[in-house]
């Protein structure tokens, strides 16, 4: 049989993930000769063998690539009747001037490494920093590019002879594993008190003992510190809530195995796949009845954020001791999670009892990613560890390099060039100065790492956002232009971009965002075409007495909403929302005179008012999104179609179609007083929201070519809304695009900004 030679270029996530060694082993096994080589952002594969076996090899490629890799494209570049190689080899990288740099994402511990650390006879038995080419930290340890050991925080650990042998052996799983380490040469664990004194003894065993005694131990994971507390210890949980000043916001948990996840939660096949993936995010699951103290872990909803151990350290922390640990951010409320041991000492005083840390430094912060399952498919809510900085690929290349600064809440930034947008990990809310520092660091690192100089900076229209201010400073320093992008336009562009599209009728429902007309938008129907948008529909506005204060104190919004709708606030309703006569009068005056009472159109604010009116939310919220979570949870408890319909009206004003909630609130002002109706009315509100969406989209369809509905904004994290709205839209003949790989919340804004400003 004649032998042939074929040469392929492979693109996607193919570098820094053990791709070449995997190809090497597969090729040798298949009896093929040739070579594999890293080139600028691609891998070139040259194979010789019989025609048929070459085809089979290429067809089977997806099956034997490493778990962190992802082939985007396979292109055949040559096919020759040649046969000269006697073996298969990994040849030196081909470096050209204009190389595309790849920083791999952090990957969860692989099954092989897990086996080694649990095997008493293995030289890495019980070793918390075991990694290989298939797993371990990447992004978080990188100091500079290209990605190799000298430019990571592992550079201070010279390899021992055994590790060196593995590192240099193409047949070894650790061939060119840049974070390779062992107990002889690698990082070491320490347990410290908050005042910085090391605790004598085995750090891991002592930490486990302290956790089982009800203590909170700050554990330094891949991307930062998490606080570990025994999930069954009520006193410890109460104490943690008190110390973190976090009365209600749900805690995430880490469980020892998928079996335990299934014991406490309803785990769908999609959720299971996600939990077990190399990215190993937190997945929001419905909880089952159990002896877990859910009222302390997740007081507001019957859902729980669950993850599996993602590093050897976490795995060893569980070994034969715990089933479920609460693992919550190692931070003070509102600040980013601590990454250095020094930060932990400075910022976790009064929160953690002990610090379990090590000398493998984290250069860049990376939170745990968070996903929900929406309509049987994963949807990102927070994109960080495991996913960032993998690119979002665009259908159409950008015309210029752009650095997009994102929003104020759930900030991420993005670097766009060619047909890629690199979305940074979740940076968080920019209120805390530490968060702004973090933003600045990432804004500096991303372009440097990717070797792409931005020629334009994209910012939100709102000039007071920290991200907008920093963007302006960077632009001034580099002497490049700033492009302001309207918030909801960015939402729409992000959802379109991740779906490979440019145009659509975008329904963007969220909590806030400065509109092009100076008012607060947030229930928008935008007709989006490349680079442009036309605002077709929105909700009638209502004032927020006290501005931002009304968001944390939604009872104020009821006063504002009633004032806007001309509804008298009766004493019974006033008492129900627990405000005094004086407060009611003051806030009403504020609305009427327009003193610090900005008008908001946002859908999120309708949820707020209804939630507090129905007595489902307290008059004050303790975290962002609480009212919506409680309202969704109440509707979920009702669990069927509501018999009550909230009346809606619509009108046109200044060429914009507007949904009026006046009649709905008139109805609710009476109905909320009936006892036992709150859950049904919560469901009725969800149904009314969908009715509003349908009215808006149908109105838009008469004025646009598009039959594609795009759903973006934090409100679309609400699964009931998606479950009702998506089939309804499809029934009317619309194609529906949802966020999947990027969050519907403001975590997607930077992507949208990059696409718009870089076009
Ligand atoms: Zn591994
Ligand atoms: Zn070693
Ligand atoms: Zn938003």
Descriptors:
4 domains; DHBP synthase; 759 residues; single chain; seven-stranded mixed β-sheet; Alpha-Beta Plaits; eleven-stranded mixed β-sheet; 24 helices; alpha/beta; binds zinc ion; 31 strands; Nucleotidyltransferase, domain 5
| Overall pLDDT level | 94
How many domains make up the coordinates?
A: 4
Q: What sort of overall outline do the alpha carbons produce when their principal axes are compared?
A: globular
What ligands can be seen in this structure? zinc ion
Secondary structure class reads alpha/beta
CATH architecture identity of the largest domain? 2-Layer Sandwich
- Strand % is 15-25%
Helical amount? 25-40%
Tell me, what is the CATH class of the largest domain? Alpha Beta
**Unreliably modeled segments:** none
Instruction: Give me the CATH superfamily of the largest domain.
Output: ATPase, nucleotide binding domain
The name of the CATH topology of the largest domain is Nucleotidyltransferase, domain 5
Walk me through this protein's architecture.
By secondary structure, the chain is of the alpha/beta class. The protein has four domains: 3-90, Alpha-Beta Plaits (2-Layer Sandwich), CATH 3.30.70.100; 190-358, Alpha-Beta Complex (DHBP synthase), CATH 3.90.870; 389-499 and 743-758, Nucleotidyltransferase, domain 5 (2-Layer Sandwich), CATH 3.30.420; 539-738, ATPase, nucleotide binding domain (Nucleotidyltransferase, domain 5, 2-Layer Sandwich), CATH 3.30.420.40. It contains 24 helices and 31 strands. The strands form five sheets. Strands 6, 7, 8, 9, 10, 11, 12, 13, 14, 15 and 16 form an eleven-stranded mixed β-sheet that branches. A seven-stranded mixed β-sheet has the order 28-29-25-24-23-30-31, with helices on both faces. Strands 17-20-19-18-21-22 form a six-stranded mixed β-sheet, with helices on both faces. A hairpin with a 2-residue loop joins strand 24 and strand 25. It is globular, with a radius of gyration of 27 Å. The two termini are 52 Å apart.
């Amino acid at each position: 049989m004649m032998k042939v030679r074929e040469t392929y270029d492979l693109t996607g996530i193919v570098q820094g993930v053990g791709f070449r060694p995997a190809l090497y082993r597969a090729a040798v096994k298949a009896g093929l000769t040739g070579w594999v080589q890293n080139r600028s952002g691609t891998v070139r594969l040259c194979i010789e063998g019989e025609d048929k076996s070459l085809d089979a090899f290429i067809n089977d490629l997806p099956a034997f690539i490493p778990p962190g890799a992802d082939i985007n494209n396979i292109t055949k570049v040559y096919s020759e009747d040649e046969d000269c190689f006697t073996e298969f080899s990994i040849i030196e990288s081909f470096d050209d001037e204009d190389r595309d740099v790849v920083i791999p994402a952090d990957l969860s511990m692989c099954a092989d490494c897990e086996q080694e650390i649990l095997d008493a006879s293995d030289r890495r038995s019980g070793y918390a920093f075991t990694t290989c080419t298939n797993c371990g930290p990447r992004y978080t340890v990188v100091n500079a590019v290209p990605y190799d050991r000298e430019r990571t925080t592992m550079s201070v650990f010279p390899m021992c002879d055994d590790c060196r042998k593995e590192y240099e052996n193409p047949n070894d799983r650790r061939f060119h594993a840049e974070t390779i380490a062992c107990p002889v040469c690698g990082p070491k664990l320490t347990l410290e008190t908050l005042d910085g004194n090391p605790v004598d003894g085995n750090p891991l065993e002592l930490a486990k003992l302290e956790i089982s005694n009800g203590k909170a131990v700050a554990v330094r994971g891949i991307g930062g510190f998490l606080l570990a507390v025994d999930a069954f210890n009520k006193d410890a949980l109460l104490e943690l809530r008190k110390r973190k000043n976090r009365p209600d916001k749900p805690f995430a948990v880490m469980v020892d195995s998928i079996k335990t996840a299934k014991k406490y939660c309803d785990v769908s096949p999609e959720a299971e796949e996600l939990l077990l993936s190399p990215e190993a995010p937190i997945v929001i699951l419905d909880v089952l009845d159990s002896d877990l103290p859910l009222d302390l872990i997740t007081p507001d909803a019957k859902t729980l954020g669950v993850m599996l151990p993602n590093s050897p350290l976490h795995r060893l922390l569980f070994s034969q001791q715990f089933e479920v640990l609460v693992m919550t951010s190692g931070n003070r409320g509102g600040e980013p999670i601590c990454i250095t041991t020094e930060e932990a000492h400075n910022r976790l005083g009064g929160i953690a009892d002990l610090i379990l840390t090590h000398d493998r430094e984290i250069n860049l912060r990376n939170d745990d990613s968070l996903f929900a399952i929406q309509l049987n498919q994963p949807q990102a809510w927070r994109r960080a560890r495991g996913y960032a900085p993998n690119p979002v690929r665009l259908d159409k290349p950008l015309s210029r390099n752009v650095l997009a600064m994102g929003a104020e809440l759930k900030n991420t930034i993005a670097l766009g060039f060619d047909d890629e947008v690199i979305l940074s990990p979740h940076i968080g809310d920019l209120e805390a100065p530490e968060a702004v520092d973090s933003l600045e660091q990432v804004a500096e690192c991303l372009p440097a790492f990717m070797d792409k100089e931005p020629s334009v900076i994209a910012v939100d229209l709102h000039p007071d956002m920290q991200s907008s201010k920093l963007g302006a400073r960077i632009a001034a320093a580099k002497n490049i232009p700033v492009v302001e992008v309207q918030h909801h336009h960015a939402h729409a562009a992000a959802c379109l971009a991740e779906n490979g599209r440019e145009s659509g009728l975008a329904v963007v429902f969220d909590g806030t965002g400065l509109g092009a007309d100076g008012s607060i938008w947030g229930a928008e129907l935008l007709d989006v075409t490349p680079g442009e948008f036309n605002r077709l529909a929105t909700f009638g506005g209502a004032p927020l007495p006290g501005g931002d204060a009304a968001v944390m104190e939604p009872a104020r919004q009821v006063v504002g909403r009633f004032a806007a709708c001309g509804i008298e606030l009766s004493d019974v309703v006033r008492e129900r929302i627990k405000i005094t006569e004086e407060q009611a009068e003051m806030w009403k005056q504020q609305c009427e005179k327009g003193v610090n009472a900005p008008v908001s159109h946002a859908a999120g604010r309708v949820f707020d008012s209804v939630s507090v009116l129905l007595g489902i939310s307290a008059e004050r919220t303790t975290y962002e999104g609480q009212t919506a979570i409680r309202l969704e949870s109440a509707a979920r408890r009702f669990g069927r179609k509501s018999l009550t319909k909230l009346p809606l009206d619509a009108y046109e004003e200044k060429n914009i179609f507007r949904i009026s909630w006046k009649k709905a609130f008139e109805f609710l002002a009476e109905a909320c007083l009936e006892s036992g109706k709150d859950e049904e009315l919560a469901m009725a509100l969800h149904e009314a929201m969908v009715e509003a969406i349908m009215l808006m989209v149908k109105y838009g369809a008469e004025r646009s070519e598009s039959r594609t509905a795009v759903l973006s904004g934090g409100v679309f994290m609400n699964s009931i809304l998606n479950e009702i709205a998506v089939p309804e839209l499809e029934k009317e003949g619309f194609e529906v695009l949802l966020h999947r790989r990027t969050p519907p919340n403001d975590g997607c804004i930077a992507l949208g900004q990059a696409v718009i400003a870089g076009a």
